[in-house]
User: Fold these one by one.
Assistant:
Number 1:
Amino acid sequence: MSGFSNTKPDVAFLKKRFNQNLAAGEKLIGSEYWMTVKGYPNLSILIRTTQLPEMAREDVEDVAPGGMKFNQHGVLKNSGEFQMTCVETIKGDVFAAVRKMVLNKEYLDLTFAAAAESNSGADAGLTRNYLHCKIYSDAVDFGSEDTTAAVKLPLRVVYNWAE
C-alpha cells in the first residue's frame, strides 16, 4: 500500500468549496483600479502600480501580575505611506509633475478606486481617499540594455489622513 494510511478522497467537499467560490462572484483583478492625484489629472493614466496601505489601530500592551500579557486596540493608525510607480513619457510628464510637487512643497489629495470592467469602471464601494500627502521620488533606473522596458518612476506617498 502506498501513501498515508489516513488519506481519503472527498470530492463532495471539494465541489462544495468550488460552489462557494463561484457564489462569491467575479474576483477583482489587480489591474482593475483607477488612481487620481488632485490637480494632476494627466497622471492617472500613467500610474502603473499602487498599494492599499494598512488599516489598523495601535496595539496597547498590558502585562498583569504574574506576567500575563494582554493586547487591546489603541488609537487609529490613520497616517502612513505606500509605494506607487508611474511610467514616464518621452516628454517627461511625470518627472515634471513630481519636480513641481517637491520644489513647491505641495500637499496633495489622492483617491484610489476599484475599476472593474464588469462594473464599467464603477468602484462598487472600494474607494480610499488619502489626504494631505507628500510625494517622494526614489532613484530612477536607466540601462542601455533595457530596450524593451519602459522607464518607471518609483514614488513614495506619505499620507496624513485616510478615509
Number 2:
Amino acid sequence: MRAFFKALATDCQGRSDEQAVISMVGAAVFFGLEIYAVGVHGQNFDAFGFGAGMGTLLGATSAGFGLRARWTPDVAASVDQVTGRLMEGAP
C-alpha cells in the first residue's frame, strides 16, 4: 500500500508531485470532516461547499504550476506545456 501511494505522489523522476499530494490530502480531509460532522456532532456535512472550495484550490494550484512551467526559462524546453510536468528523458 505504501508503494502505491508513493507512486501516486511522485512524478517520472521520483520527485514529489504537489498536485497529487494536494488532491490526496484534500480527499483525506473530506472523509475525515464528513465522519466527524456526522458521527460526532450528528449534523449534516456540507459536501457541496467543501467540494467548491477544494475545486478552487486545485484549479488555482494547477494554474500556478502551469505558469511556473511556462515562464521558467531554464526548464521551459523540458516541461510539457499542457500539464506543466517535467517530461521523461529531460535534462
Number 3:
Amino acid sequence: MSIFNPILDAIGWLLSIFYGVVPNLGVSIILLTFTIMGLLYPLTAKQARSMIRMQMVQPEIKRIQAKYKNDRAALNEEMMKFYQENKINPLAGCLPLLVQMPIFFALFRVLQNPYKYVPESSSLFKALCTVPKGPDAGVLATVDQCSKGGAYGSQLPVPKQFLGMNLSLSAPDQLTTWASVLGFALVALVMLSGYLQSRQAQKRTPAINKQMALVTKILPVFFGFISLNFPSGLVLYFFVSNLWRLGQQEVIFRSIGTAANPKHKSLTGSKSVAVVEAESRERSDEGASDATPVPAKAKKAPAPRATRPAPSGKPMIAPTGGGGLRGLFRPPPPPGAGATVRPATPPARKQSTRSTRSSRTATPTPAERPGQAGRRVSKKKKKR
C-alpha cells in the first residue's frame, strides 16, 4: 500500500461526486481544481503575506549579512533571532507548493486509470466500465476486467472526452486532428497563463534577487514543455489552476496590500513595516559616525610665478614700433606689468637730426644704462 493511496482515493471520490452532478469528466476536473484551490487559499494568503514581509525587512537582512559575512555561524544565529523577533517564517512561501505536489502526482495517476480509484457504485465507474457494444453490450465489468487487455479487449475503459479531446491521452497521442490541435492549444494556454501569473506577482512583489526573477520566467516555459507528455486532463488542471491563481493573487494583493503599501493588520501592526528600515538607517549612520574619516588628499595648487617688481619710480613703458635702435636694445617689460602699458602714440613729425641727437643725450630714459645714449649717437655718426 502506497502513502499516496488515501490521496488517490480522495481525488477519485471527488471526481465521482462531481461527475454525478455534471456527467462530463472535463467539467468534473474543473470543479475538482476549484475545490483544491479553495482549500489551499489560506496557505496561499499566508505565503503572500510572508513574501511581502520579507520584502519589507530586506534592508535589515542585508545589513546583518554584510556585518557577519565572514562568520557563517554568527550569521545564521542572527538571522534566526531576527526572524523570531519579527515573526517571519522564511519557509511559509513554499507551503502551498509542497502541499500541491502530492495532489499533482495523485491526479496524474488518477487520470491515467480513473476506474481504479473511483467507487464502483458511482456513475463515473459505470460510464467507464460498461461494455459499449458487442454481444456483451451493457454489461458492467469489474475493476480487473475494465483494464486494457482484459476480458473485453480495447473496448474498456470507455474514453471520456472534453471538447473532442481524450482526457486520458497526451496532446501528441490524440487520435484526431481536431483533438491534437486542441491539445497543443491547451499546452500553449498553460504557458501563457503561467507567464501572466509570474508577471503579476513580480509587479506587486518584486523578486529579491536576479536568480529568483530568472526562475519565475523560465518556469512557465518548463511546465509547457513537460505538459506535452501529460494526459490532457492533467493539462486542463494546470490551465484552470493558473487562471484561478491570477484572480486569487489580485484579490490577495488588494486585501493585504504590497510591501510599499501594506494593508493587512499582521503587516501594519508589525515592527517590520517602517521601523525596521528606520532602525537600519540609524545603525548604518551610527557605524558611519564611529568610523574615523580618512582625509582626502588635496591637490597641490600650482605655485605662483615669481614676477619682477616694477621700479619704484616711473612705470615701465612698453616699447613702441617707432623707437628705432632704442627699441631693439630696450629690455622687455616684466610679467604682470601689462596694466601699466601706455598706449602707442602716432609717430610725431620727423625732426632734424641735430634736435633728435640733443634730445636723446639730454633726457635718457630710466631703462637705459649710463653712457648708452652716447654710444648710440657715436654709432650713427660713424655711419654718416
Number 4:
Amino acid sequence: MRPPPHTVIATVLLLIFRRDVARRDLKASAIAFAFVLSATVACHALGIVNTINDWSCSSETERFAMARTLALVAGQGRPELGAEFFLRCMEDAAIGDSPLSSTKINEIAAGCMLFNLTVFNESE
C-alpha cells in the first residue's frame, strides 16, 4: 500500500532541507506549501472496495480512472460496457442522499452489469 501523497512530499522536503542549509523563510514557505497541498490532495486513490460515498468525494480524474478499470475488468471489452457506461451508472447511484452511500463500488458495478445484461436479454 502506497503512503499518502502528502507524506511523500513532506519526506522529500525534509531530505532536501537536511542536506542543504536553506534559509529559514524558504523552509517555512515550503512547509506551508506542503500542508496546503496535503489538504487538497486525497489521502488515497479510489479503489473498487471504496463506497459510493467515496466516489462522490473523489476527483473527476479518479472517477474516470475507476470507470476505465471497471470497463476493462467487468465490461470485458464489450463496447456497450465501456468507461462511459460505468461512469454514468456510478454517478446515478451517487446522486443526492442515496441509500446506497455505504455500498461498495464493486457491488454497484455488479448491479449495473446485471441490470444491463438483464434488460438486453429481455429485449431480444
